[in-house]
């Protein structure tokens, strides 16, 4: 993870370094990335890079964590905006992602996260009902008439939903689908879940 010196940087400089890290990591495996290319893009010295991150792997993990938190937050936001239309919220999120420019940082972040080496999206959070997000999630499930009462089961369902979204995003990217194709594919999946396959 980054050293405190990185967090103490002015916001603009931190964002510039994050953009360079994303550009370096999103389309190639970490073993192919060199500190030299990050230094060149950011115009910081090699010594400054190591002043901010102990290793290249720490910089990579920082970006993975940052992007995963953003995507978790955004999926939750889209579901919450469509309180009683749970799967519609996810469909709106997938529509948003499918219409992104492939040069956008958000698209690059998705691409970085769906690469095989990343499992951060599946790391479980604290499951107590004192956790605000857990309470909000339980309320969304109640509004959608899902019969999930316990925090532990609700979190299990949350990560199931995240897997569903990430799987859909992976299909969007590898098949180079248009918005209509990703939404049609997702409607099949949500209908299977809600109505069954028999």
C-alpha end-to-end distance: 48 Å
**Domain module tally:** 2
Strand residues, percent? under 5%
Total DSSP helices: 10
Count all strands and give the number: 0
User: Could you report the average pLDDT, rounded to the nearest whole number?
Assistant: 91
Structural class call reads mainly alpha
Name the helix and strand elements from N-terminus to C-terminus, one letter apiece.
HHHHHHHHHH
Question: What's the helical proportion of residues?
Answer: 55-70%
Q: Which sheet architecture does the biggest sheet show?
A: none
The radius of gyration computed from the alpha-carbon positions, rounded to a whole number of angstroms, is: 19 Å
Short characterization:
This protein has 198 residues and is mainly α. The chain is built from 10 helices and no strands.
